[in-house]
Specification:
9 strands; binds 2'-O-acetyl adenosine-5-diphosphoribose; alpha/beta; Rossmann fold; 2 domains; SIR2/SIRT2 'Small Domain'
Length: about 250
């Protein structure tokens, strides 16, 4: 039996949770972080994605996030995002847990999306905590809070910061109670997010990995599908439909 058929059998049993990373949005034109052409090849995380970097040079950090927001605002969900939304509508997928900050799962129609690393589409006041939705790229060099005029920052998780507690608790609960976790387009290099597949496995779930290349998870995955998520996930959904219509 090939990988897709095996994965489809696992998915057709239901109670599936997807855990996604930058690779799921690569085919929407959003750069990944690691590997060829990845953001961390061209930019240094410690200069752009830490609280210290923001304290040192907020205009530089904002310029980088505005560029990333502009990419995201003009991007469209790709067939991988759409396939996951379809599995949710079919009642097989409980939720998507994502490390991505692009909002493309929601744009594809996924309803339950747990964002572990925040969102580029939101800013947060460094003084009063007020959250602002960014439906366009802010014009000001240093965007200000509409409530208190404090300095806004991107509402994303930076290196050295904790994940949002509610999102993390929800993710752990989903990982511990799913029957199958689809791990898609992540290098599984950043913790604590990368521990979610391990939590799922310990709870008895099957792991299906979809990625261009091998990752630290490959050794313990039940099925590893190698290739583009935008090509493999629609094939998987077709195979699931074939199975459940039998
Ligand atoms: P990475 O850039 O580390 O990994 C992307 C993974 O996706 C790699 O394993 C690629 O092989 C795979 N990939 C690329 N294109 C693909 C495609 N079309 N189909 C399937 N797989 C593909 O991204 P993440 O694992 O998401 O954190 O990175 C995790 C975190 O590191 C990010 O959330 C970000 C970053 O630093 C923060 O900013 C806190």
């Amino acid at each position: 039996m090939n990988g897709i058929s095996l994965a489809a059998r696992l998915v057709a049993r239901g109670r599936v949770v997807a855990f996604t990373g930058a690779g799921v949005s690569a085919e929407s034109g959003i750069p990944t972080f690691r590997g060829r052409g990845g953001l961390w090849e061209r930019f240094k995380p410690e200069e752009l994605a830490t609280p210290e970097a923001f304290a040192r040079d907020p205009a530089r950090v904002w310029a980088w996030y505005k560029w990333r927001l502009s990419l995201v605002l003009s991007a469209k969900p790709n067939p991988a995002h759409l396939a996951l939304a379809e599995l949710e509508r079919m009642g097989l997928l409980t939720a998507v847990i994502t490390q991505n900050v692009d909002g493309l799962h929601q744009a594809a129609g996924s309803k339950r999306v747990v964002e572990l690393h925040g969102s580029l589409r939101r800013a947060r006041c460094t003084r009063c905590g007020f959250k602002v939705r960014l439906s366009r790229v802010p014009e000001e060099e240093l965007p200000r809070c509409p409530a208190c005029r404090g300095l806004l920052r991107p509402d994303v998780v930076w290196f050295g910061e904790s994940l949002p507690a509610d999102a993390w608790l929800e993710a752990v609960e989903l990982a511990s109670s799913c029957k199958c976790m689809l791990v898609i387009g992540t290098s599984c290099a950043v913790y604590p997010a990368a521990s979610l597949p391990l939590i799922a496995k310990r709870g008895g779930a099957a792991l299906v990995e979809v990625s261009l290349e091998a990752t630290p998870l490959t050794a313990i995955a039940d099925v590893s599908l190698r290739g583009r998520a935008g090509e493999l996930l629609p094939l998987l959904v077709d195979e699931v439909k074939r199975l459940i219509s039998r």
